[in-house]
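Researcher: Please translate sequence to structure tokens.
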Amino acid sequence: MKVEIWAEVTCPWCGLGSHRVDRAVERFEHSDEVELVHRSLPLGGTLPTDRTITVREVLLRKYGMNGAQAEAATGRIETLAASEGLSPYRVLDNVVGNTDLAHEFLAHATAQGRNREAWDTILDTYFGRAEPVFTLDDLLRLAGELGLDRDLTRRVLTDRRHRSQVQEDVRRAQRLGATGAPFTVVDGRYAVPGAQSSDALLDLLRTAWDEAHPVTRTLAGHAPVCAPDGCAVPGRP
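Model: Translation complete:
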């Protein structure tokens, strides 16, 4: 069974949503038969590529939030993340930037068989350590952490070889009904928007599994007939 989660690397709900999907899969009785795949749904393509902006500045410019409002809004998700085992999880005291190159890096890592490790690393780098993940140098540093060939990674990102793959991820998510991130699809049939709880996701995994693996009951030979004091085979005293 395949579980796909579309995310933006700087979206705090995406980081939490990815963690919740991981926990749900870990708790699932058939976790060894689940293929978990992360996909790109970039939301920061309009941001400048030559600089970063503080989260505080973005919240003020885009939503008109003052300092206290920004702290309240981001404090909620930081508290949620901590309660679910993600700590530290830095949202407010962070920066944002154009994430197109980061998603192309993730597509490159996926092509090298490192999908889940790359997503875990980039989310931990950004939210756990509050380090930038936007420039070529940022991403080459992550390539070293993942054991990816730095020279190959540099060429791939400089040539923008995976731009079309990222764009296809976006188109597929939109075809499936995504209007934002995170967006999770289970077994190609159940689409779930937002960072659902791990309990809800676990229930969905079980539902999808049961529908794909219906129980077939058969009667063969003589079935025993049981009374309160024991069982007997039909036709025998």
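Researcher: Any highlights?
Model: Residues 223-228, 230-234 have pLDDT under 50 and may be disordered.
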